[in-house]
Amino acid sequence: MPRGVLFLAWAPFFSGAERALLLTLRSLDPVRYQPYVLTGTEGEFAAQVRTMGIPCKSFSLQPIDRRHPLAALRSVASVLKMAVRHRVALIHSNETASFQPGGYTARLLRIPSITHVRFPDTRVGYQWFFRTRFSRAIFVSRDLMDGAMREAPEIFGGRSETLYDCVEPQAPWSEHEATQCRLELGLPTEQTLVAITGQIAEVKGIWDFIEAARIVTSRSSLPFFVVLGDDLRGSGQMRRAMEERVAALGLTARFRFLGFRRDAPRIVQAFDVITVPSHVEPLGNATLEAMAAGRPVIGSRVGGIPEMVVDGETGLLVPPADPQSLAAAIDQIIRNPDLRSRMSAQARRRARDRFGIETHGRSLQALYDRVLASSSSVAA
Question: Domains along the chain?
Answer without folding.
Answer: 3-166+356-379 (3.40.50.2000), 175-355 (3.40.50.2000)
